[in-house]
Amino acid sequence: MKPKIILTGDRPTGKLHIGHYVGSLKQRVALQNTGEFDKIFIMIADAQALTDNFDNPEKVRSNIQEVALDYLSAGLDPEKSTIFIQSQISELTELSFYYMNLVTVARLQRNPTVKSEIKMRKFESNIPVGFFTYPISQAADITAFQATTVPAGEDQRPMVEQAREIVRKFNEIYEPVLTEPEIMLPKNEACLRLPGTDGKAKMSKSLGNCIYLSDTADDVKKKIMSMYTDPLHIQVSDPGHLEGNTVFTYLDAFCTDEHFSRYLPDYANLDELKAHYQRGGLGDVKIKRFLNEVVQEELEPIRERRKEYEKDIPELYEMLKKGTEQAREKAAETMAKVKHAMKIDYFA
Ligand code: ATP
Ligand code: MG
Q1: Residue 140: in which H helix or E strand, if any?
Q2: Which residue has its alpha carbon closest to ligand 1 atom 25?
Q3: Does domain 217-306 have CATH number 1.10.240.10?
Q4: What is the pLDDT of residues 108-117, one digit of tens each?
Q5: Model pTM?
Q6: pLDDT in tens, 52-68
Q7: Do the domains 5-194+313-341 and 217-306 sit in the same CATH topology, yes or no?
Q8: How far is the CA of 265 from the centre of ligand 1 (A)?
Q9: What region does 255 belong to: left with phi over 0, alpha with psi -120 to 50, or beta?
Q10: Which atom of ligand 1 is nearest to the CA of 195?
């Protein structure tokens, strides 16, 4: 049977937030601990981060450490998951170059995630070629490790689809040496694309509407207490709406029935709370306080572990170096097969 391999990662453009956590990181940790995957590769995508931060190398460099700390704190274990830095594996750049032949400009222009990112970054007609082609580079990242599974948030669906097309085309034109990956989305719908605390469609570092895994308990509380809810819910007695109500989306993402017995025993579960809110007579403050308890319970152990890992940064880099060396071996193996298939292995 084909080995089951995971490849996923994050851009080092800031510390990780609870959107990353519910969208991908939490699931990675769970998958790592089931042991059902033969290999797990977790990539810090610094080269990709440079495609829209090329003029700010210090930001990308300093956030490598932050993302690595978030990983370990959230429970990724370097003994079970290979954590590595993208730019240090030149095979990934090499693969991207050959994959560019297999993709048209029109196809890249159709990518809905890239479209909305271009808009958000106000590139207009000045789109850097590197940014425009990052879905191709991402296909290289995924396929270099022969990944079968990519645990990620919904915004990554078009990227994985692009990777699948490249694989099919490559395998058809040359030789069938690449593996077609599949995206693994979170099962909980609220986690597919967690909105920002401002109610905007996506919590994102670039939009500055995030609750970070490393935020202090005080910061988390402040952010939650000032979160976007239902603009029509003015008096406590008014009926409230759940649609687009970020506090309820977060509760959907984080809370369980046990949280109710611990922190809000007047209700058995989220359905009862929602029903009361819709009837009217339930204030936002009460719900936000409850959400704060739920989120703090999840973040507290992560925060504590982070403090420990922060004490030994050289050890952190040692871990990244080892992971990068291991990852490189796998990428080089694929690269050799690709070169053979493309008939550019002249000296083999
Ligand atoms: P940037 O603004 O730099 O693009 P980002 O916050 O969008 O940062 P990425 O590094 O692009 O984060 O995303 C890393 C992973 O986290 C991807 O799998 C992505 O799907 C997931 N993810 C990011 N934001 C969210 C979110 N709000 N909800 C669910 N998943 C998310
Ligand atoms: Mg992003």
Answers
A1: helix 134-144
A2: 19
A3: yes
A4: 999 999 999 9
A5: 0.95
A6: 999 999 999 999 999 99
A7: no
A8: 34
A9: beta
A10: 27
